[in-house]
Write a structure and sequence with these properties.
The chain is mostly beta strands. It has a domain of 101 residues. The strands form 2 sheets. The protein has a 5-stranded mixed β-sheet with strand order 1-4-7-3-9, with no helix packed on it.
Length: 159
């Protein structure tokens, strides 16, 4: 019996294991409310519940390269994670947001991933950019219209 047993050697293990910097914030809200998330290199997971508060669980990996700002006003909750110029190349973040079912969501991720959990009902996602019609490859000049008497003759000849 030849079974391959995976082994880990010290050479293959990462030398530095980065622990994420985590935080939990809870915001009491009333309808209507919107949660705005703007971030780079981010993964957002959204859960729904029937309570009147928004919970934000944030995990910042290599958090020294990222600046996180979380605020609330009468319109909603704002989450902004900006990467710093050079140090931010190593950074990424993960957010788990638990929101009331009546909450509006707005994301601006460059790039990022959004996962919706426990969705129950319709979901409408508008286009990412307005539809543009590409120019034609060949431009065909407009044809000259026939004089009215010519159209009458053509229609009369079909009957």
């Amino acid at each position: 019996m030849n079974h391959l047993i995976p082994t880990t050697s010290p050479a293959t293990e990462p030398k530095i294991k980065l622990r994420p910097r985590t935080m939990l914030r809870v915001f009491p809200v009333r309808p209507p409310v919107t949660v705005f998330v703007r971030a780079s290199q981010c993964q957002v997971t959204v859960h729904y519940h029937d309570l009147d508060h928004v919970e934000l669980h944030a995990s910042l990996y290599a958090g020294f390269g990222m600046r996180l700002v979380v605020e609330q006003d009468e319109a909603g909750v704002y989450v902004v994670a900006r990467r710093r110029r050079l140090l931010g190349l190593l950074s990424r973040c993960e957010f788990t947001i638990t929101v009331p079912t009546y909450c509006h969501l707005a994301f601006n991720l460059t790039p990022g991933t959004v996962r919706l959990q426990d969705l129950n009902g319709p979901l409408e996602i508008p286009p990412l950019s307005p539809q543009t019609i590409p120019p034609p490859l060949v431009t065909i000049p407009p044809t000259k219209s026939l004089p009215k008497q010519r159209w009458d003759q053509l229609e009369g000849g079909r009957s």
